[in-house]
Amino acid sequence: MNAQISAKKPLVLNFKDDSLTTVSRETLRNIAKRLGFNETQATLYALARLRDELLAAEEKDALMPLTKKQLDVIAKAEPAGQGKVLGTLLL
Question: What predicted TM-score, i.e. pTM, was given to this entire model?
Answer without folding.
Answer: 0.56
